[in-house]
Amino acid sequence: MRHFLFLLLITLSLSGIAQDFSTTQFNQSKNKITKNGMWVLGGWGTANIVGSGIGAFTTTGETQAFHQMNVGWGIINTGLAALSLAGNKNAKTDLSQVETVKQLEATKRIFLVNAALDVAYMATGTYMIEKSKSVDDIKRSDLLSGFGKSFILQGAGLMIFDAIMYAAHTRNGNRKLYNNISGLSIGPSGFYVAVSF
Closest Cα partner for 80 from 41, 127, 54? Predict the structure, then answer.
């Protein structure tokens, strides 16, 4: 009987929290932020494909290698943006509060992991540039240096993008989700529900 009453109290307290708050509206705003971000990423990718596509055919040496790698990055970024936009189109918005929190935190975690990868891209670019200085073959040296500069540029651009996306989702969550779920908190080992007696 005590377990039943405890579960009943938790259920009633959570339903009371939800009375004035729509997770559907929050999820729509979260999806809109992601959608807008993917349009920016796709635009960045397309600009790299077009701009560096021209540069790859009109330059030589290190500069040509730089543009060639930018085209590769552009194809990848545009493809990722297109896949995300397609997936976002069918994203569910009628999630429970717990599912909504989990999805938001997973989305934020993706951008944090990507930011760490961006640092790795820039470090790889720096290594390639340094390695190019010790290569005797001028073509290989130009290739390493050009690719390295592209890695640094793309890593920096993507780091800015990922930081902005993380901040936008964090701000949106703080303003529109967490402020409306007063009984829910997140700790290092999971979610917690505060129940007042």
Answer: 41
